[in-house]
Amino acid sequence: MAETPVYTDADPTLAELLQTHPQLTVDPTCGLMLEGVALNAIADSVGTPCWVLGAGTLRARMRRMHTAMRNAGLDVSIHYAVKANDHLAILTLIGQEGFGADIVSGGELARALKAGIPADRIVFSGVGKTDAELEQAISHGIGQINVESAEELEAISAIATKLGKQATITLRVNPDVDAKTHAKITTGLAANKFGIPFQDAAALYAHAFTLPGVRPVGFATHIGSQILTTTPYRAAYARVAELVRTVRAAGNAVSVVDCGGGLGICYRNETEGQPEALAGAIKAELGGLGVKLAIEPGRWPIGPAGVLLSSVILRKEQGMDVPFLVLDAAMNELLRPSMYDAWHGILPLAPQAFSQPVSLAHVVGPVCESGDTFARDRLLPPLARNARIALLDTGAYGAVMSSTYNSRPLAAEVLVEDGQWQVIRQRQSVEELWQDETVPSHLAKAT
Ligand SMILES: Cc1ncc(COP(=O)(O)O)c(C=O)c1O
Ligand SMILES: N[C@@H](CCCC[NH3+])C(=O)O
Question: Which residues carry this modification: N6-(pyridoxal phosphate)lysine (predicted)?
Answer without folding.
Answer: 83
